[in-house]
Design goal:
By secondary structure, this protein is an all-beta fold. The chain is built from no helices and 16 strands. Strand 2 and strand 3 form a beta hairpin. The radius of gyration is 15 Å and the shape is globular.
Amino acid sequence: GHEGAISSLAFSPFGDRLASVGVDGTVRLWDFRAGTLLQTLRGHTDIVLAVAFSPDGETLASGSDDDTIRLWQVDDGALVHTLTGHRNWINHISFAPDGETLASASSDGTIRFWDPTTGTQTEIIDRYTSNTELITFSPDGRLVASAGQKDEVWIWSTDGGPPLRLAGHT
């Protein structure tokens, strides 16, 4: 297992694998039904906080305190892309339902959108947010919700337009 605490978990879309990430900087892929470790993915240089499978189950994304997101092939554990651009921890990552976009939330106060096939950044949202910790797509992929340490949730349309702010958790 991991050396130290586990910081995030994700089931594969077909429920046949579990990914775990932790303070030891590794990503581990498990066949949880058999109770066996399939692969240990190394490359991050700091704590890994976030993990997500692509909707087709072929790609695993991990986000770290080393300010990078890494994309791995699930079948052989090969590193496909290292995504750079954030200036602080990657707190959460989420694939769009169609798998064509990966969103990342960071303590640098930005939300970034990436093309997981090419590894390129396609958009950045750097206003309205601070220390963004959570991000998720709506089931149809048209909306993205984000939240952080403030008492607010932001809803973003993926085809432009002003965001909607929800507040009131205090």
